[in-house]
Amino acid sequence: MKNNILANTIVFKLNEKTALSFKFQSSLKELICCEKAIILLEDFQKKSIIIGSEDSVIIDLQMLSRILVEIFKHPNRMKVAADEDIGIVWQEILLGRREKEPVVISEGIETWQGLNFLLWRNKDINASWLYLDQNNNITFKVTPLYQGIFDESEQNEIPCFFDEFLKSYHPIAELILSYEQAQQWLKQANEVVEIIQQNIHGKSQSFTN
Question: What is the pTM of this model?
Answer without folding.
Answer: 0.86
